[in-house]
Amino acid sequence: MNKAIKKIANHYIEKCGSRDPFEIAEYLNIQLQIGPLGTPCGSYLFLKNHRCIFLNEDLSENEMKLVMSHELGHAILHRKLNCYFIRNKTLLLNSKIELEANLFAAELLIPDHTILDHYTLTISQLSRLLGYEEAIIKLRLASLNGSELT
Length: 150
Ligand SMILES: [Zn+2]
Description:
Elements: H1 2-16, H2 21-27, E1 31-35, E2 42-47, E3 50-56, H3 61-77, E4 83-85, H4 96-109, H5 112-117, H6 123-130, H7 134-144
Parallel strand pairs: 1-3
Antiparallel strand pairs: 2-3, 2-4
Helix pairs in contact: 1-4, 2-3, 3-4, 4-7, 6-7
The structure holds zinc ion.
């Protein structure tokens, strides 16, 4: 599973010439709206045959990038499923679907060389350095080591 998702992420990175989830979404014609959502940080919905991502306007820049990458993962991997991204929850979910979206986000946000350049750092140090939650760093390290998660 990990390798397939890495391959898919790299495919879109190459096609767009960018790791930016916003650029990739635009390239794929995925609708994006940023506004007040209340509790969820973001959501992905398949509406009237359109892929739509909603982001909560109160997210920090890094949170927005992370949630966007996760929802983009759904848009690409699970086109017809809906997701509501909940802070402190979604990154820890073990369902196959959420795990795949998290893995996609980890691949997109953190290139191999970033991990290799800092291979002496611990997970919490990497988390602080890169500004993403430890759960994402853990997934990224697992995929770099080629281990399967399930
Ligand atoms: Zn999700």
